[in-house]
Structure formats: C-alpha cells, structure tokens
C-alpha cells in the first residue's frame, strides 16, 4: 500500500512537469476535437501521433496518446446528443436518450451530465487502475509462456465473440492479421519470412501505415460514397445546468456505469463500447420507471458515458500489467511503447516506474482538464460541427499521408497505407471487422513466441497447456465462450 | 454477397521452426474462407447493394499512393496542393476556383505545420522550399 502511495507521489512529480502537462493538455484537447468530429476517431489520431512519439521522451509521448484516448470519450457524446450521430462507437448508446433530451430542449443538461459523469467515472477508473494494477502485475509475473499462450487464445476468442457480426469473419480477419505479422524476421530464429528477397520487408510491414490506412483512410474512402457531404442542423441549447432532481437520479447511474465500465474494460475485445450497452441495459432493468428510457431519461445518458470513460482505464490494466493490448486503441499505445524499446508488462512498474506512474497520474490531471474543456467550452465544439465534412476530409487524408511518410521518410509507406486503405474499404463493404486484424497484427509476434517457447519447453507436446493450472483455466474459459452462445441459441430454438 | 474466398493455403518454409505459425494461420484462414463460401451459398442475395462507387474509391486510393511516390520528386508543397485539388475537384465536385484557393491555403498551412512547427523532414523538390 505504501508502495502504491509512494508511486503516486512519484508519478505526480513526473506528470506535473511543464512539458508533460502540456503534452497532456494537447492530448486531451485533440481527443475532444477528434471525438466531436464524426468520421475521424481516436484510433487514427493516435496512430498519427506515433511518428512524433517516436522522437520524444516516451513518458511524454504516452501521456499525450493516452490523453487522446480518453479525451475522445468526452467529445463523442456531443454529437450523439446534438445530432443523433455518434462521434465514435462508444457513444452510440448515448444517442438514444441524449438526443431525445435535446429534442425536448434539454440538450444543455444532457451535455453537462455527460461531462460530469465522464469525469467522475473516469477518475474512479483511474483510482481503481492505480490500486489494482500493481498487485495485478505481481500476479502477472507468475505467467510463463504456456499461460500467456492460453491467455492470448482466450483474448482472441473474446475479441471474435464481441466484434459484432459474424464470428467467422472476425476469425478470418484475425488470421490475416497474424499472417501479416509474420512478414519479416521470425521472432525465435530470426530467419526472414515472406520478404520476397527485399530489404524493405525485413522489418516487417509497418504498423503505422497499416493502422492509418486500415482505419483512417478506409473510413474516408467509405464516406466517399456520400461525396463527403453531411448536412448538419443543430438543435438549440439553452440552460446548461442540470436540476437537483437530475443529479439525484443520475448519481447512482454514474456509479454503476463506472464500475461496469472499468471491470468489463479489462476484458479483451470489450473496448469501450460494449460496456456502454451493458450499463444502459442494467440501468433500465434496475429502474423503477423503465418506460422513461428512450424518451429522454437522464440516467440513460449518465450511465453509458460513465461506462465508456471508466472502460478506458480498465483497458489499460492488461496493457500495463500483462503487456496485452485488449483493443485497437490500446494496441496503438502499445506500439508507442515498443518504438522506444519499452515492453509493457509485469516488469513495467519495476523497470520504468516513471512511465507507469507518470502516465497513470497524468490521467487524473487529464480528466480535470477535460471537465473544464467540456463544460463551459461546449459551445465552441458545437461550432466545429458546422464545418461541412467536404472541407475536412481531404486535408485529413493529406495529414495521414504526410504522417505516414514521416515515420521513416519512406514514400513506400504511403503506398502501403493506400493499399491498406483499400483493403479496409473492401473489408468494410464485406462486413469483415478490422479490429481483430489490428490486434492480431500487434500481438502476433508475442503470440508466436509464447506458443513456440511453450512447445519447446514441453518438447513438442501440447499437453503442457493442460498440466499447468492457469493455462488450463484459461482454456476452459475459452471453451465456455465458444460454446455458450451456441447452447443459448439452440435453447431458444427448442423453446420456440 | 461478395464471397471473400482468399484461402491462401500456403504454408511456406517446411522447417517446423519459422514455418509453423504462418502455416497454422494459413490453415485457419483457409478454413474460415471455406465456411464463408458455404454460408454465402445458403444466404439470399442481399437486395439493393447501395451503389458502390468503387472505381472512384480505387482511383482515390491510387491517388494517395501516387502522392507518396511523387512527393519525393515534386516536393511537398506542390504535391500536397495537387492532391487536395484532386480531392476537391474530381471527387467532391466542388467549384474549381474555390478548390484552387482552398488547396493552396491548406497546402501552405500544412507546410507551416509540418516543416516549421513539428520539424518533420519534408522533400523540397520542384519549388525548392
């Protein structure tokens, strides 16, 4: 316990330095703007930051990237409430009651409660992260290659399950990601694979071009079909502050949303959006007046907004303690770590306490900054929405191209980015989820290393996964995740 | 429904070391491709595929790739200007004069942002900037 408190103190000494404070501010500001603007999301922005993060101090870089990550959760609710257009996936549920409130002239309180809930739950999430991560990391030291392999198998099955839509497609996406990750030098023996005899491919496919292309460029290519024209009319906002009644009703929703968000966020594949659906349904079920939901119930806004912010903190638990990125956004954070040769994982706290505690404490200050940015300055962001998309997309494409180019001053990276943009477009049209691909790409090397090390430990026998208790438990969980949905669908069919 | 049947099935490098992981994944990919093909056969054709403008999309993607290749030769400001112009005039069908002005302004702003503010190494090419 005292270690944790010492860590917190140390962390603040790092994160409150002027440079890091500025980085935090830029991160959360960018995150808010990006969250407000539909069509560009935190994932693309974070990957565009990679070339910059590579060149500066790792702590500062990660503080900024993390700021974009949870900042976008604040901004996303603005468009959901005002325009019934989610800023990103985690704000979809907020549209339901949020926009209803806006239609009834209560946009102000909706926006305010959303910001307040995000702040309270976000801070709660960081507190939980602060106190749960270090002991978790100690536990994680007991994880060896077989356990890691099993955990990764479970993670991917969870991601497959929760990707929405066909699980088979998600699996295909993941397999493709693993294969793409295999390009380059093999992790155990360092022999070249799939390089077709070129030097460029010896390093493997660049993460930057892949992500920026697959998420950013693809998104804009898909929007091409509307010629980038989206008409926006905004409802009136008057009377910003929620009433006392609002607070009374929303407070428990915020608390529950925060807890649900954090603990679900720890699981891979959850991201920040599934916790929002779960917390909304929970609130509705626990409510004494469920019929209010869908007609402007303020708890319907408070709960999901709190959940998505707490979930960002939860997402960081596996990354910082196990070195596993549970979502696409955390995968990019992980890439940020890796460009400095810092491996997130159980030893992060010991080897790089300034990074761990610096980043964690920066999230407290970040949340405070976001509260200030989102409450009084909401009107400013609303102005931003009035800019037609047409004028935004090509410059953003340009930024993507330049950003990718600047990673290695390599023009071919831009070509790769364009190719992945095209792939992303095709995948979108054919309903293949892109998230499993990204996760597989990032975690591919680790997975392969763990798998091969396990097999060499057991001299080729797969039984090693069954004899070690943690690994066995993970594999049971995997089976459960795979089998349960099949059982419940058959059950439903039998009942009908 | 488009059948994404790209089951590679290639597991190069028969040495159990490096070839093992890709092989497993190729098998996985091939299997899922098979399942998807079978699924597609049993599903009715999705009605009204929203007119996909895929030639335009392909063109834009190639345009982006061209940007990458040309930027070293033509220099950052010029290539950026041309790219933006292409997007606005050809893709979005914005009026020509407005697009030219906007593209010039944006290209200049981008140059200032990336070269001056962020200190990124940019190729100078034709305009010698």
Describe this structure in words.
The complex is a heterodimer of chains A (496) and B (129). Helices cover 74% and strands 1% of the residues of chain A. Chain A is mainly alpha-helical and 496 residues long. The model of chain A has no long low-confidence stretch (mean pLDDT 80). Chain B has 129 residues and is mainly α. Helices cover 67% and strands 0% of the residues of chain B. In chain B, helix 2 packs antiparallel against helix 3 and helix 3 runs antiparallel to helix 4. Chain B starts with 15 loop residues before the first helix and ends in a 12-residue tail after the last helix. Residues 1-15 and 44-50 of chain B have low confidence and may be disordered. The chains are: A mainly alpha (496), B mainly alpha (129). The interface between A and B is large, with 57 and 57 residues.
Question: Which percent range fits the helix content of chain A?
Answer: over 70%
Instruction: State the separation between the terminal residues of chain B, measured CA to CA.
Output: 50 Å
Shape, per Cα inertia axes of chain B:
elongated
Give the rounded overall mean pLDDT of chain B.
69
Q: Report the biggest beta sheet of chain B as strand number plus sense, adding barrel if it closes.
A: none
